[in-house]
Amino acid sequence: MITIILSLMLLIPSMAESHPIPSDDPPQPAGDRLRQVWYPLENGMEVGLLPLPSRLPAASQEVSIITAWKVGADHDPVGLSGRTHLAAQYLASQYLATNGNSATEHPAEVQAGSHQTWIIEKVAPAQLSQSIEAIVNTFDSQQVDEARLQRCRGQIRSLDRSGAEGDADRLSRLILDSLDPLASGARGLDQLDQISAQEIGTFLARAYHPGTVRIVIVGPYDPAPIIQMMKESIASIAAGEELIPPPALATTPGELDPIASTVTDHGMVAFGWRVPRPGTLESLPLGLFVPRLRRALEAEKGSCSWNPILEPEIVIIRQPIVPSPSTVEQRISRAIQQLKGAVSYALDHPVSGELLMQSRSGTAILLGAYRVHDPTSMIDPYPAAEALMLRRVFAMNESQLRNNFGRMAKEQLKKLKMDHIQKDQTVTGVLTP
After folding, report:
1. 38 near 206, Cβ under 8 Å?
2. Is the separation of the CB atoms in 108 and 95 below 8 Å?
3. CB 329 within 8 A of CB 387
């Protein structure tokens, strides 16, 4: 019975969505407390609280905390490429240094995208209050420590891959630059060493404040102390000025100049497209298109990338150019045909009931049409936290999306094809062996 009630928490509209939390709440019936998931505060911050039971032993339980910052790489100007990622990495490092103590056993993970940045923590329930205190303290971080900032530069650079994986990343960045260009310039050419501690401090003071931050907390915990902390600490953080959204730059579909592989006899062909924004009815066919692309490509070691955190409106597919006695031109042509065949299958093949069922527990959740199943959430609360945050970020109307997902799938895929997956909308990149 408890599980059923908790599962309904996201079904019923939040009572707090239209009214900021007051400083002194009147007593509420238990049912009203259960229905409240999102707490918009008067300083502009939004906090989502979703307590869930756990099937794991107490020593293995974790609570997932997501701090979503409404700032991404598109806010970086020329000469300061990588500034947002570096600032977020610095904030994440502060979680481990609150009052000189470790707030969590594991370092926070930074997901730095073009339009938003997430800091993800997984902590033991007993550490939750301390972790929230660490997040609160990041709003008072005008003085940036250069030594710690240098370590953050090293952490970011440690993510750079080499060899075949690094080549694939280079190709993907070129495609992204064509589909979603940044004002700071080409991706992969960060200027981390030129960004000073003073610049990061100034940037955080202007761009990191309650109006640009949402927090989600999901897992096995008692929400009462967190609600009290919201009233006493989080709600008292000063509001900041509203940020001006950066202008969208023009896309340049077409064929990119080939780039050479750094690995002997290794190559790749990739296609990329702009697709509808999550939260819209037009995005629903992605819930079928993406998994079918992955299924069609995996047999030949190909891949399909769609990430609603990092690049929510971009799909990129890749096909390795395999070694063979054929000429390079013939091998490239074969890889291109493989990609085209996968796209044709994903768009034109009849939709099976099996695919619909699989999508409902995968991409459809990220699109806001379905929820994470309780058995999953009671073992790992992160997928539920991710889905809850995505719903808020993209203002998803779950009932509308659920009612339309998979309905008239053929027509939905046809519209996706006509509006977004045409030749003149495709970016093609080649990594030559």
Report:
1. no
2. yes
3. no
